[in-house]
Amino acid sequence: MKKILAIGIAMLSGTPVYAADSYTIDPRHTFPSFELNHLGYSTQRGRFNSTKGKITLDRAAKSGSIEITVDTASIDTGLEKLEEHLRSPDFFNTAAHPTMTFKSSKVTYNGDAPSKIDGDITLLGITKPLSLTVSAFRCSIHPMLKKEVCGADANGAFKRSEFGMKYGVPAVGDDVKLLIQVEAIKD
Question: Fewer CB atoms near the end CB (10 Å): N or C, the chain?
Answer without folding.
Answer: N
